[in-house]
Each structure stands twice: as structure tokens, then as C-alpha cells.
Design a protein that fits this description.
The chain has about 140 residues and is α+β, with helices and mostly antiparallel strands. Helix content is about 50%, strand content about 15%. It has two domains: about 30 residues, no CATH class; about 80 residues, Winged helix-like DNA-binding domain superfamily/Winged helix DNA-binding domain (Arc Repressor Mutant, subunit A).
Length: about 140
């Protein structure tokens, strides 16, 4: 879309966007609720972490059990311990899980209620009535 200066008298495409023009109405309301570019990057990174089915199964194993060691997570989620260890490193760095050491064993759990809420709402969205379970591409 071609964007023109505010003082231009020529419309700029179908949206008639003008640089410097004030944002009004619903657009202004939407802009007030818009997250910053930095927060959007962080959120997108979080969703990328949740974009792997093995990591999602690992997180739901932790959601169901509360706290598990790597070998129990692997058995529950039906993935290798190597996969779990790698996933835990990524998820811990992102603040999605936290760990606790007991001797030589490391136990993992979801970091906080926000992560549990995100998983609960996501699952509810996928299984709600009328949802086909497939994403259109």
C-alpha cells in the first residue's frame, strides 16, 4: 500500500491511510490495547516453544502430575529422555518450567499459574464443541 503524507490530497489505497493522521474510533481503542513490539516478540517466542507436539505433551504431563523427574516425564509423554532434557532446557530458559534438585535427581514443574492457565485455555479451545481439530492452512 502506498502511504502519503498527511498534507497530501491523494488517497492512499483502500484503507485511505495517511501518515500522521490521527487514529479514531475502534482503531484508537485497538491501538491502546496493542502490545509493544518487544512484548509481541516475546509472546511469539513462547508460542514457537508451544509449537512442538512433543513439548506440548511434556507440558501436559507436568500439568497433570505437578512435578516429575526427566525419566518420569519421558515415560509419561512417551518421548526419549534426551528429548525431555532438551525441551526442559528450552522451557526453563523461557520461564515456562522451573526445576528443583534433590540429590542427583532434577524435578520439573510448571513455573506458575499463568502457564497452567495458558495450557488449560489452549486445550479447551482445541476440544470445545464444534471444533474440527484441524487448522486451516
Amino acid at each position: 500500500m502506498k502511504v502519503l503524507r498527511h498534507d497530501s490530497s491523494v488517497a492512499a489505497g483502500p484503507a485511505r491511510t495517511l501518515v500522521g493522521a490521527g487514529v479514531r474510533g475502534r482503531a484508537a481503542t485497538a491501538r491502546r490495547g496493542l502490545i509493544s513490539a518487544s512484548d509481541a516478540d516475546d509472546l511469539a517466542a513462547c508460542f514457537r516453544l508451544l509449537g512442538d507436539p512433543k513439548r506440548v505433551r511434556i507440558l501436559y504431563a507436568l500439568l497433570g502430575a505437578g512435578e516429575l523427574c526427566v525419566c518420569d516425564i519421558a515415560a509419561t509423554a512417551e518421548v526419549s529422555e534426551t528429548t525431555v532434557s532438551h525441551a526442559m532446557r528450552l522451557l526453563r530458559t523461557a520461564g515456562i518450567v522451573r526445576n528443583r534438585r534433590d540429590g542427583r535427581t532434577v524435578y520439573y514443574r510448571l513455573d506458575d499459574a499463568h502457564v497452567r492457565l495458558l495450557l488449560d485455555v489452549s486445550k479447551e479451545h482445541v476440544v470445545h464443541e464444534g471444533h474440527e481439530g484441524a487448522v486451516e492452512r
